[in-house]
Amino acid sequence: MKAIMVMFDSLNRHMLPPYGGDWIHAPNFARLAARAVTFDNAYAGSMPCMPARRELHTGRYNFLHRSWGPLEPFDDSMPELLKRNGVHTHLASDHPHYWEDGGATYHGRYSTWEFIRGQEGDPWKGQVADPEMPENLKRVRMPSYRQDWANRQHMPTEDLHSQTRTFDAGLEFIRTNHAQDNWFVQIETFDPHEPFFSHKRYKDLYPHDYDGPHFDWPDYKRVVETDEQVRHARYEYAALLSMCDHSLGRVLDAMDEHGLWEDTLLIVNTDHGLLLGEKGWWGKSVQPWYNELVHLPLFVWDPRDGRAGDRDDALVQTIDLAPTLLEYFGVAIPADMQGLPLNGDRRREAALFGIHGGHVNVTDGRHVYMRAPATAANAPLLEHTLMPTHMKNRFSPAELADLELAEPFSFTKGVRTLLIKGRTLLNPFHHGTLLFDLKADPEQLDPIADDDVELRMAALLVELMRDNEAPPSQFERLGLPSTGKVTEEHLLVRAQREQARRAAEPLPDLSDFPLLRTPIKALVADPRAAEVLRAHLPGLLDSEMLQLVAGTPLIDLAAMAGALVPTAALRAIAAELAELPA
């Protein structure tokens, strides 16, 4: 038995030809769909990158107990279980988060692994002098932004691109071992995650007139760019997606060449999608988890049943991939895994998804229910972990100063975890609790208020949370019962409808209010403008926060932190600034 997983990051389902993306050049995804089963109802679970990969290893949800971090000492790891049972597991990846503090225990679970350098500001090439960086629309420029431009200099041709070298490494494993038995290779590229760095032949697939600033790395925020700039960024993403399609085709060619369709499981998947201007948003994590982000592409070829060109509408999730691979190789599935093998008869009624500290969401395939915190405090929010690590660094001593020990969960194998006060960058309370009917509103543009539907979906949400042994703090944070029945008194859609409406209100049109592009420090230099800002945003000018955002235009601040700068206040400020004498 052999298995290949081709995993992409931020791969948008709705842009792929098998899912209706008719303007994208991706013939190999169409070729794959003709040879495999295309899943129409695949959903993410825990977001973003490393929480999704913990699910890939453990087959259970991550986000209700902790945020981004490594595998825990008590975790069952699918690649490690395969390794222990005589299956050679190999990881070939350019995903930089595997080699940061918050991902440091994943790659060691494989028999062998190979890391390709250079993606998204990976601290790869040391260069003291600043690299040449073009005029760019990106506003958030952390050190990784500068490093990325240093790295790009070392990938001037497609053969040197980190994605190409990742697939080179994975294909080398296949060529070396295709005649052997009992192996699993995971070929995982960070693409088409931002920045959308690709080479000319892929950009040429999407000809368009554009003479604006460089723009292939949108910030996570509301869209404030022009329609032309948005269209250009989408084409940059599309070019990188077409490069991913070419790399996928190389794997399909290898399966043809070595006759692997006869005895090799093939899974092609992703962790989540990415908003590219849809609903007026860029990126992920800072807005509700709309379907563009969580309704995933998934393709599976299983040589045992030989289903090719089929569609499957079963409600499946990332947590199903670990038990699928264990079952395929005849390895016992641990009791702690919640996922279901994809070729089994069992089906789930609903799927849970979200990010630690954010909305807790559930879908039954027809409706999507996004449960916000019951109060603006978004509390209590607690981390249950023995690996206190953020994405790129360890928890600070200050964060650990008041830690306690929690009682064990059934899946911690009798071990007590640390109990640490959690934190989240943005508060989901701002967006309110949302309910969507995907049949009537597939683009999730018009949330509904229906008490009967909300009651049913809230009951499904609570049932899944209890099945996952969600800690009591999560039920309290959401205003839901940890025991007993969900009743009308627990409903929140109507109670939070007005705040949800305010959060979804479009930003002002900059053609009408050009002063909103002026940096805040330039506005406050005029005492009259400063008084306008102070009247509508009293906390901004009179706190240390002004030091952080002084160089930021007001429109960009509103795009990144809508709870801080509500759209109504922004419109009022713009109107009053426009009335000031020049």
TrEMBL record:
The lineage of its organism: Bacteria, Bacillati, Actinomycetota, Actinomycetes, Streptosporangiales. One of its GO terms (molecular function) is arylsulfatase activity. Pfam families: Sulfatase. This is Sulfatase. SUPFAM superfamilies: Alkaline phosphatase-like. InterPro entries: Alkaline_phosphatase_core_sf, Sulfatase, Sulfatase_N. CDD domains: sulfatase_like. It comes from Bailinhaonella thermotolerans. Belongs to the sulfatase family. Residues 4-331 form the Sulfatase N-terminal domain. PANTHER family: ARYLSULFATASE, ARYLSULFATASE FAMILY MEMBER.
